[in-house]
Structure formats: structure tokens, C-alpha cells
Amino acid sequence: MPNIQSRIRNFSIIAHIDHGKSTLADRLIEATGVISKRDMVNQILDTMELERERGITIKLQTIRLIYHAKDGYEYYLNLIDTPGHVDFTYEVSRSLAACEGAVLVVDASQGVEAQTMANVYLALENNLEIVPVLNKIDLPSAEPQRVLKEIEDVIGLDTENTPLVSAKEGKNIQDVLEAIVTRIPPPKGEISSPLKALIFDSYYDSYRGVIVSLRIMDGQVKTKDRIKMMATGKCFEVDEVGLFLNGLHPTDKLSAGEVGYLTASIKNIGDTAVGDTITHEKNAALHPLPGYKKVNSMVYCGIYPLDGARYDDLKDALGKLNLNDASLLYQPETSAVLGFGFRCGFLGLLHMEIIQQRLEREFKLDIVATVPSVVYHVILTDGTMVDVDNPTNMPPTVKIDYMEEPIASATMMLPVEYVGPIMELCQSRRGIYLGMHYIDETRVVLDYELPLNEIIYDFFDALKSRTKGYASLDYQIKHYKRSELMKLDILLNGEIVDALSFIVHKEKAYERGRKIAEKLKNEIPRQMFEIPIQAAIGGKIIARETVKAMRKDVLSKCYGGDISRKRKLLEKQKEGKKKMRQIGKVQVPQEAFLSVLKLDE
Amino acid sequence: MKKISLYIHIPFCKKKCLYCDFVSFENARKDIAPYFSALYKEIKAYKTILYEEYTIDTIFIGGGTPNYVEVTYIEELMKIIFDTFDVDINAEISMEVNPCGYSSREDFIRYKKAGINRLSIGLQSASDDMLKQIGRQHHLLDFENAFQAAREAGFANINIDLIFGFYNQDINEFRESVRYVIQRGCEHVSCYSLKLEEDTPLYESYMEAGIDIEDADYEDREMYRLACQMLEQYGYKQYELSNYAKEGYECRHNLNYWDTKEYIGFGVAAHSYKDNARFYNTSDIGEYIQSIDTNGSAIEDIEQLDKITQEEEFIIMALRKKDGVEYDEFKKRFGEDFLIKYNKEIEYLCESGLLITDRNNAFLSEEGKNFANISMMEFISK
Question: Which of A275, A440, B99, B361 is within CB 3.0–4.6 Å of A292 for a Cys-Cys bond?
Fold first, then answer.
């Protein structure tokens, strides 16, 4: 009988959004009987309501499957789920680093997409064996032969014996399990070497503290061991180690090649940074595992309670979210118009949207979010550099020598007929064309260099609407570049609304100022007085709109039969008023703050 | 004996006006007979509920167009009401009248004889152009004839309805309309600012033309001020946001609504308020006729108002009146001190210049009347 390590397979499933990753995971779990079909809510790996709704995985989940293969042996398959979006690239790459192989799911009708490519590159960087799987073969629009050829041509994978499955209908799932066993290599690693374990995820449990998901690369870890986090230097005593079965399943130890969890009464999730290496306090490994990096927030915005009295509730909510999401940064800030709130840092736009939505849904908070900003480098005349993620903190112009902004390299995949409009879009967003190549006769890959601050202004929506939803996008920050940037202020009723200020490229300032003023005019309801809306750079007004004064708000006729109807109208009006934020004398609806982001018509 | 009001809905029109969203049916002559039998049945079924406990203080026959149906229907209706209930000898009994030539002097005499003692005539505008634009079926001359016939028949308490605030309506045209009404010497004037209701042809046409009705609000308020000024000058006191009357001719029936007192509505879509419950009939005429036939009732829903809702409705409705909320009345009804309980809201509204308080009352200021909803909204807790 072969040793236990040879019967372990550690793998992830990678896919473009909507290609059926979660459904396939469900079927694998079901087929191996870890969880009975009856107990299974669809897509058990996506546990958050929001994840289900948006069809994306935000937090990692891991599960150990036991599979009786055709060769007669029992195999332990550790399925490590990965988040599916560009914002979480680093987390994906850490999950992949815990694996020897990856199942690449490709939709048999959609074919290869931008994130398929991005994930494949990540997998290749981690030297993973890639097992392609064609999903959704039950769809009438499925073209397995074309897509297989695409995988060979574009990715360069051998597609012989590729399982053709329908995860939805549970068809050919066995083929996938066999392919995992036969094609993905077992883990290597020396049990006798000093401990090296990779942290690929962690979450907070209010009873046990942080629960760390780890992959043992070398050595062993047991209960009561004294361990050390190599990046942070923090030491802890292990309370419990175990495996991810249906829930957490304690064992006495975890050995090289295994995937499991560990608890050590860790109170602060920041002490268990994803990508860090765990070793023993004594007999420590000399070098950590490669690849650890500190993740920096790319996008910042201010988050304020709509009702100032709920500041403490917001603080608690952010604290709770942060327990399980160390990549969410937050610190108190004050806005002249919005009062007390928090400056929050996110991995990207999606991350930001998800946090905002979770605050509203899970914590029932009405919030106002300010215009998001990227992190700018401001080089002062004395030669020092400051990072600015909040336009309000921009140093006075006279003190600024020059500024730099983050530049992303963006890959877009789209049907060939949309190349014109998308090139125009990228051009209008200050993009620099890098190249284009054909995947097949119908689809192309476009590569552009785009300033991140252009991407965060609804670039993704614009891309989708110009391609009827067919384009996909992936981007990564490459470097900082010197740029002509300036701060644009919005004045409501003569007062600067700091929450609406943002930093913009010189060439775009006029147009964006005008569009925002127009947009706000449509979002702000008439009030008992006239409201000027102005966009200004420095002291100079570059655009102006006016919300005309409301002249009446009265139900002229009201008879007996109307009373309940009119009361409901008033209740609705009151409800609407509650959703407004008072800025000076002006009532501004929550949506107005968001609408300035959606400038693409 | 407790007092209560009755409302009777006559949901038939020759043609609906372009701005109207009331429940009324065009080309439905065939429904008239079955509708009235149902209506009579519904009224009779209330005998046991109201008799011996209630006396009828006011009656209002509205529509629709009550004088669109044969006079006999109204005569029968009044007879049934008098036979079924204890109608106060001094009851105010109003009927709405469309002046488009349906009613002759003889008809008005019959209405009078049937017991009706107050008419409300929908003139809307004294300009034939305007009348045509808003889809009215009558001309000014029709109104003149109807008004005169009503007077000759002995109606000494007549209201005339005006409406203003249409897009591009000329203020001079409106001034002429007000002047015309004053010259008729009627006892009461209702002067309504147009409320553009969705699902009306007027709304559709405004949308199509890209008209923002709020753009007409400036002129609307000019007309409103003009109406107040002219009517007050000729002895019509504004006693509610849209209603003006000569001394002693205030509409008791409508005041009853604004005082949130009890009423029973009969007919399709009619609302009732009794024992702190609001209930209303179905808006579907076929369903109404059938339900009355089989169950003797066509109530679609009942809403039991809790104390706070009663209180809020009392305030909302009271603020429509010139005298606003009377502290004594509030205390009598709800056992609480209005000024103390709503101290915060009152202070805010007074500071905003929308509300005025004196020793006995809290009422809307002139500016407050333009923004009545803003004041009313403050008192809503939901």
C-alpha cells in the first residue's frame, strides 16, 4: 500500500465568472458523498448570500473529499476554492500555491475568457498541472469542438481526454474525479524537515479566535506546538489542528502534503496574513516559503452613516467585517459635510461594492460612500513624497512639484465586431494601446495600459454596455507614472462638498466636472430654494447647473376616500427624506453620491 | 345619537376628463340599472348598523357624474336613504353636477324635491378654449344655463369648481374665470391646483411632450395667490387649502372628513370610516354588483387604525383647515397635549416659517400652504 502522501491530491477549480465553478464543486462534493444530496443547499461553497446572488466566491472555502478511484485505492482530494475576481488575484495565487493542480472549467458555449487566461497564468506561475474540463455541454449553444480547439490554440493545453460535463445535470462528474487522481501529482515534502506551512486563508470565529487554513509543505504540526508566523514574528501555542470535512474535524496532527486548519487563540486576523509561512518557534525553518507579499489597497473611499447617530454601529460593522477580511482597511476620518465616518481601503472596485452592500444588508446600515480614489504619489517641492488616497488631503498646489498615478495593464477579450468601440473607449480613458491578437476568427484579445483612476470610473460597466455584455476584463497594477493631475471640487449651494471632490487628469477635468454637475442636477430633487451646483478647480468655476426651486408641495384635493392613499404618499415621501443626507441646507439623496460614478450614458 | 355622514358614488360619465383618475366609467349605460339596484341593496343593508344609533348629518352624492343618470335613479336613491336612516332635519345634502346640458330646470326641481339642498357644479374654467384643452364636454354657455336653472329651481347653496395649474395656462384666462365665478354670486368656490396623476391621458401627453409639470408650478402659485386674493375680497373666506365660502356656507360634509369624523361610503370604490376602521369597496364595477348581490357587501379591505395613526391622520387633515389643529380638540380626542407631544416638529416647522402657533391653534402659514406636505410629513412617524 502506497504511503498516505501519494494518495493526496490538492487542487483548485479555476474559471471565468459564470462558467460554473461552484456548481461543479457542488457536484464533486455530492459525488464523493461528503455531504448527502439531501443536506446540500446548492453551491455550498458560496456561503454568503451576496456570493450566491452575484455568482462569485468572495471568501475561500476548503473541503476534503474522499474518492474511491478506479484503481481500487481511496484518495483524499483537498478542494481549495478560489475567489473568482480580479480584485482577489493575490488570494487566488495563494490558494493555487497550496495546490499541485487546478481544474480549469471552461464554458462549452462561451469559450476562453479574460479571467480564464488570467487564472491559467497564475496556475502556470505556481507550476500547477492544469486539467481542463468543458462545462455546460447540455446547452444547445455548446460547441465543444470549437472550444477545445480554442483551449489548445490560446492556452496551449493538451485537450485529449478532456472531461465533457454538465455540472448542472450532474453528467460525467466521475470523469473529472478520475482526471484529478490520474493527472494531478501527489504532494511532495519531507515530514522530517522543519515545519513550513503556507497560510492561504483565515477567518475569525468568536469562540476559537482566528481559524487558519494552511497547507503543510514540510514537517508536521500538532496540538500544543509553539508556532511562529514568519512574516510578523508573532508566536502562538496551537490549540487544535484538523481537516475540513463537513465542517471542522480535529485530528492529532497535520503532516507534509496535507491541507487543514489550525487554531491558536489568535485574536487578530492581521497576525495571520495570507501568504505567510508558519514554522515552529524552536527548530524553525531557515527561509519562509516564497511569494509572500503585503497586499496594498488599491481603491479608497469614505464611508459614512446616513444617520450620523449610527457612527458606532458602522464602526462595529466594519470591525466585524474586518475580522474575516484583513484586506479591508478602515480608519476614522471626518468630513466637513458628512461628519464622522471612515476612510476605507479595498483591493478593487468589486471589493468596495461588496463591502458597501454587506454593510447595508447584513448590518442594515444606510451609508453614504464618497467618490472612490486610487492612491496617488504626490512629490513635494522639498523632494519628499506623500501618498494621497483622499482628495481632501491633497497638499496645496504651491507645495506640489509633480504627481504620479497608478497604471494598470488591462487585458480585454471581446467579439471582433466590438473592437472599434472598445478601442475608442480605452482611448477616451487615456489608454495606451499595447497590442491585439485573435483567439479565433470571431474573438480578439486587446491589451491596453490604463490609468487605474479611469478604470474605477465605471469602466467595467462601459465595457459591458458597449459589447452587449460579451467582453471580459482583467487588470493588474504595473507601475506609477507621472501625470498632470488636479483636484476637482463640487460646490452645492456655494459650499464645497468634500465627499464629492476627486482627483482627475487635467484633460478630463472640464468634461467630468460638467457631467457630474448635470448628473447631480437630475439626482437632487427640487427644494424650497434654488440650488446652484458648480464644479471648480482651484477657485475657478468650470461648470454650473441649477436645481430650480420647488414652488409647491401640496395635495390640493383631499376627500374622505383619499385619506389612506394620501397618507401612504406622505409616508413614502417621509421614507425618501430619511434616505437623504443634509448638506448645508440641501437634502441630497444617497444615490447622488453613487451617480457621480456612473457617468457613462 | 351620534352623527355620521354618507357618501354615495355614481361612477358614470359620458366622457372622462383628461386629468381625472377617479373611479368612473364611460360608455357604461348598460351597467347603470344593475348598479343602482346593487347600490340600493347596499344602503338598505346598513339599516341595522346605523339605525337607532346614528343620525345622518350630511350626504354627498358624487361621481363620476350623478346628473348623467336619469333623475329617477337619484329620486329613488334619496327615498331609500330617507326610509332607511334617520336623516337630520337640517342635514346638508349635496350633489355634484356636470353642466354639460344634462339637467333642465325641471330636473333641478325634481332634485330639490328629492331632498337635495346643495349643488356642486364643475365649471373648471370660464374659457371655452381651456375647457376643450382639458377634455371637458361643456361650454361656458352650458354652465350659464345650468346655473340659472338651478337657481330658478330654488337651490340657494351652490358651489362652483375651478381648476388651475395646467401647463401653459394663461394667468389672465384664470383671472377671468375667477371673476366670472364671483359674478355668479355662488355661495362656495372650490379652487383646485391640478395634480397630475399617472395613468391619465393628460399625464401621458405631458410625458410625450417632455413637459416637466414642476416647471408650471411658479405660475400655479401665482394663480393660487390670485384666487385667494380675489375671492377673499368678495367675501369668500378660505377655510381649507382649496375651499372658499361665504359666511356659514362652508361644506359641512367635507369638513367632516377634515375633522376625521365618521362616514359611510356606498357604491363602487367608496371608502368608509367608522369605529376607527377604514374600509372600502372594490373598484371593479362588475365585482361590486356581484358581491352586493351575493353577500350584500363589496368590502375589499379593512384597515384598523391604531391610536398613533388616528392621531397622525387627525393632524394631517386638520392642517388642511384654516384653523389647523385646535389644541383643545386634540386633547379631547387623544388625551395629550399637542404642543408638548410634537414639540420638536412644531419648533422645526415654525422656524422654517411653515407653521404658526397661537394660544389655541397651530395652522399653516401662507407659505406653509404651498408646502403643506412638508409640514404634514413631519408628523408622520413611519
Answer: A275
